[in-house]
Structure formats: C-alpha cells, structure tokens
Design goal:
143 residues, mainly alpha, two-stranded antiparallel ribbon, rod-shaped
C-alpha cells in the first residue's frame, strides 16, 4: 500500500497492483478478443475501478485527480431553432399554444395542414400536439 494525502490533507491508503496482477493485465490487454465483462470481473476480484484497469491494460493515459469518465447522453445544446431538424420557430410554437388555449380550438391536424401549406414543409399533427402540450419546445414557457 502507498500512503498519500488527498485534497483535505487526510492520509489515504491507495492500493497498487501486485506485479503478478500487472503482468496478467498486460497480457489481457495484448489479446485481440477479450471476453465480455473482463474489466468488470477483474475489478470485482481485485477491488479496483474497471475503467482504471482497462486504461492501464491498453496503455491509455490515466487521468489522475479527475472525475472518472461518465457515460450517457451529452448535455442538450441545440434547442429550438438552433436544432437543424426543427420545423417550427419559437413564434409559431407560441402561436400554436395561444390558439390551443382558446375555447373550441381547431384540431391538431388542421393546424398542421395550415402550417405545412405556409412553410412548404411537411408538419405532422404529432409535431403540433407535442409543441402545444409542452412535450417538445420545453425551454419555452407554457404561458
């Protein structure tokens, strides 16, 4: 074990791989096909982070002192008209929501047909429904 100080100056024990574990890790890293779950299995057996073991075996840089790599979807940045596949503008969404609040509003299909004719782009009734009810364009207030 190696002892080091963390950011709060507390002494923390950090375990290191034994030479035999390190050799086994390097051999696994050289294999073309590794069995599924190899890193997770070794992580459980040796009580190490599987991502750390994988990066060490494959010769990838170890990011010391940083948060571990996270998986999942990146944060959404292209909202509204900034999204290249957007078929409506913010003003049109506000207008749709305003019309839907009125008593006896037109159907979603009628609104979609009217928008499709005006924009020369096919807009479905589902697109209008989602925009009107806040399922899409969530960054705009419902007013």
């Amino acid at each position: 074990m190696v002892f080091s100080k963390d950011q709060g100056n507390a002494i923390v024990a950090q375990r290191r791989l034994t030479p035999a574990q390190y050799q086994e890790l390097r051999e696994i890293g050289k294999q073309e096909k590794r069995p599924w779950g190899t890193w997770a299995r070794l992580g459980r057996e040796w009580e190490f982070d599987p991502t750390y073991l994988r990066r060490l075996a494959l010769g990838l840089p170890i990011q010391a002192g940083k948060k571990p790599l996270t998986y999942g979807n990146p944060p959404r940045t292209n909202r509204g008209v900034e999204n290249p596949s957007a078929k409506l503008t913010e003003d049109e969404v506000r207008e749709i929501r305003r019309i839907r609040r009125q008593p006896n509003p037109p159907s979603y299909r009628a609104m979609a047909a009217k928008l499709s004719e005006a924009k020369k782009v096919r807009i479905t009734d589902t697109t209008v429904y989602c925009a009107a009810n806040g399922l899409s364009w969530k960054h705009l207030p419902m007013e």
